[in-house]
Specification:
single chain; 457 residues; alpha+beta; Phosphorylase Kinase, domain 1; Transferase(Phosphotransferase), domain 1; PH-domain like; 4 domains; six-stranded antiparallel beta sheet; five-stranded antiparallel beta sheet; 20 strands
């Protein structure tokens, strides 16, 4: 058995053991005596013990292979790999993996010490982890960690988050169809991972479960109900951030964010995802009209557009043009120039008149044909685009700052909220709504789209 002070490979002097006592795996803090001054390193040792499983060796060697090709500032750097015998002539082999040491504490250690993380701390942690996942998932082939949890995340003394323990990592073999040993930690690993079908969104689920653990102090397995992690009643989060977490931990992987990059974009832009805000208030505004039919949903926004006040000079020009037109008519002039003059006179008047154009914009969903349509209708124009309901991944609402004149010399800003539908592409609804109105529409669409998705799948 290895002990403190022992030197491996005439280079690594063991200091003390880290982590839980698992006979087949040991993790040691050690000194690298080959450099001056001596540097601290982490030595992971796989022991050929009676309970040794060959699958453990396969995972250990895969971890070594993957780490050799990783180069990210928040992943401990690979240093060495070796095989040793405990004693001369012994048939017992020990495999060793050496990585840089990261001074700090794991998030699990902080939780056990009573640390509770607030929303702003969680957002910062989430952004750092997503940056790491973007790097891993965008490698060729992609690298899936498959065991993201608080004990595998270190908060370094430099306040950076580090991802460690790639013992469950999955790389090229996932693409070539090789069957894997089921790995992952209960509560953090999604269902598809236990079925041997891990995808990038599987790491996102583990991230969401980890963040919820940090927020509530409770392991995600304790919060699960009907496959969902129920955490809203135990936190006091911004609705948009809570909904973002719910998308990360959707039981069905196709309803999560497709990539870490997409999840980071939504987090940074402050968008509110709708699957599913649990407590949304219904809008009381009379500017939005919701119509429900069997298999159909229509949402209208009735609005008015006021044109600029009439200009006296242009009105005078318009009057002259109309008078000249009448003169040509009396004198029996050619009809074509008369028509052109009257037409131009009308356009001049209509663009300067002080009147209100009543229009409407609407979103129309029809389950029978699996289509939705976004349409804007005005007095002089109509704009339409359509998409497929079953391709809708999620819907977001996001804030927009708008400027307006309070007086001739005073410009103010106000925040309005708008809707976005993500399907095969992005569909924008540039309706200027209050946050309450948007939340009401979000809930209405969610209640209708969920059964629509089932019917069309």
């Amino acid at each position: 058995m290895w002990k403190s002070g022992q030197i491996l490979q005439e280079r690594y002097q063991l200091q003390h053991r880290l982590g839980s006592a698992i006979a087949s795996r040991q993790t040691w803090l050690a000194k690298d005596l080959s450099v001056q001054p001596h540097e601290l390193v982490i030595v992971k040792i796989l022991v050929f013990a009676p309970q040794f499983q060959w699958e453990d060796l396969k995972l250990f060697e895969r971890e070594v292979q993957v780490l050799q090709n990783l180069n990210h500032s928040q992943i401990p750097h690979y240093r060495d790999y070796f095989v040793v015998e405990q004693e001369a002539g012994s048939q017992l082999l020990w495999w060793g993996l050496v990585q840089n040491y990261i001074p700090g504490k794991t998030l699990q250690e902080l939780l056990e010490a009573g640390k509770r993380f607030n929303q702003e701390e969680i957002r910062k942690i989430a952004k750092q982890i997503l940056q790491i996942l973007i790097y891993l998932h965008e490698l060729s082939p992609p690298v899936l960690h498959r065991d993201l949890k608080p004990s595998n995340l270190i908060l370094g003394e430099d306040k950076q988050i580090y991802l460690v323990d790639f013992g469950a990592v999955q790389d090229r073999a996932a693409i070539t169809g090789v069957t894997f040993t089921v790995v992952g930690s209960y509560g953090y690993a999604p269902l598809e991972q236990f079925w041997g079908r891990a995808v990038p969104a599987s790491d996102l689920y583990a991230l969401g479960a980890t963040l919820i653990h940090l927020l509530t102090g409770l392991a995600p397995a304790e919060l699960q109900n009907n496959l969902r992690i129920q955490f809203r009643d135990r936190t006091n989060l911004n609705p948009s951030f809570a909904s973002w977490l719910e998308i990360l931990t959707e039981p069905a992987c196709e309803q999560r964010f497709a990539t870490a990059h997409q999840a980071l974009q939504e987090l940074e832009h402050g968008a509110l995802q709708i699957f599913a805000p649990r407590y949304t208030r219904r809008s009381q505004t009379n500017r939005v009209v919701i119509k429900r039919f069997a298999g159909k949903l229509e949402i209208y926004k009735i609005h008015q557009i006021k044109y600029t006040p009439i200009n006296i000079d242009n009105l005078f020009i318009t009057a002259i043009l109309i008078t000249v037109s009448a003169g040509f008519s009396i004198m029996g002039s050619n009809f074509i120039p008369l028509f052109i003059i009257i037409y131009l006179s009308f356009i001049c008047f209509i663009t300067q008149a002080n009147f209100t154009d009543r229009g409407e914009r609407f979103v129309y969903f029809e389950r029978a044909i699996d289509r939705f349509k976004i349409c804007e209708k005005y007095l002089f124009r109509c704009k339409e685009e359509s998409g497929t309901i079953s391709q809708i991944q999620y819907i977001t609402m996001y804030p927009v700052e708008k400027s307006f004149y309070a007086s001739s010399s005073c410009v103010l800003t106000k925040t309005v909220w708008r809707l976005m539908i993500r399907a095969n592409k992005i569909y924008l609804l540039d309706w200027d709504l209050t946050e309450e109105e948007c939340l009401g529409l979000v809930r209405e669409m969610q209640n209708w789209i969920d059964p629509a998705r089932i019917a069309c799948s």
